[in-house]
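INTERNAL AUDIT FORM
Audit reference: QA-55
Scope: verify that the stored structure record matches its stored sequence.
Auditor: D.O.
Record contents follow.
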Amino acid sequence: MFGGLSGNGQPRRRVPVSMTGFGSAEGAVAGGRVAVEIRTVNHRHFNFSPKLPGEFAPLEGEIRERLRRDFDRGHIALFVRWTESPEAAERQPVVDLDRARQVAERLRELQNALGLSGDLSVELIARQPEVMVWSTPVALEVVWAEVEPIVAAAATDCRRMRMREGGVLGAELEARLAAIGQAADHVEILAPARLTRERNRLQQAVRELTQGVAIDETRLTQEIALFADRLDITEEIVRLRAHVAAATAALGAEKAVGKELGFLAQELGREVNTIGSKANDAEITRLVIGMKGELEKIREQLENLE
């Protein structure tokens, strides 16, 4: 589930895990049969919501801790129901013989007192209150050793679905991260020409404003250099690439990565916004808008990633 070898003997890359899944299993418990269903959806933390028959209530803590081994995050709804009632819990009809004898004696006394004829039937005696009663059901003891394999099988089934869906999410996230990286490459190519244009524009503007007036060329060069430094986006591009690389690597990590990727998406957004604020170029602005769109889609998908 978390790696191993693929069919060609190469290491199998771990895929991220979705928080949406369903799994079920059935097995024998206490002489009956039990069905376990697990449904999971996205949640910031591990949120366990069980629906158990009364006999299973003492095992809620064990079930919760067992599921923590398979699910790091998500709303985990667990349903347990009997598909075949355990024999020990079935009630049986019981005859209270002492009560039946008392009823028969009283009926005969009534018969004699009223001078009535006829035989007393079994049906008549059995219909009298408290002669025929239902036994008290035997207290049913549900053992964790019988329940645990069924819960584990349902969790494995659910986990398998979450991994299938996570693989699709992971592929989409990788594609969107790659798109951001490609846009950053284009921005880097365009950046030097933008600085040259800005420098020439400023020099021309200063000369037009100072016609006939001597200016300190050295000071002008320094001011233009400072302005160019404020517009430089080299550091932002470097950090952006580092965040893209870290996020791509995290998608194959042997752990839940949703929170880490959420942090990296936040850092990516910060660098993209800074590049946009320094852009002062139509083509770079267009690329920044595209990167923001990819980031928004990444954030939406991360909401459902474990």
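Auditor finding: record pair retrieved intact. The chain has a mean pLDDT of 84.
Action required: none
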